[in-house]
Amino acid sequence: MGRCRVCRAETAQNYTPESGWYSASCTECGTYKIDKQVMKMLEKGKVLNAPMMQKWIGREHNLDSNPFPAITLHTAVWAS
Ligand SMILES: [Zn+2]
After folding, report:
1. 1, 3, 4, 56: which could form a disulfide with 11 (CB 3.0–4.6 Å)?
2. What is the residue range of 7's domain?
3. How close is the Cα of 4 to the center of ligand 1, in Å?
4. 9 assigned to some structural domain
5. How far is the CA of 42 from the centre of ligand 1 (A)?
6. Global confidence as pTM
7. 25: CA distance to ligand 1 center in Å?
């Protein structure tokens, strides 16, 4: 357990620095994963825009039936 990187809720998650991928199964956001570059930004204090990311994750689940949409520098929406 730990804090969801998107909405900060207590969330089942898995992070292996070797693989570079963080994955989470959040009751608020659904399942998603985050790549190494975005994890670095988060460690530096950048914050994801939770409502926008949740909307995006939901849409990816519907479109692709992709169980773990990937949050990368291309898909991340940052809080200003
Ligand atoms: Zn969440």
Report:
1. 4
2. 2-71
3. 5
4. yes
5. 14
6. 0.89
7. 8
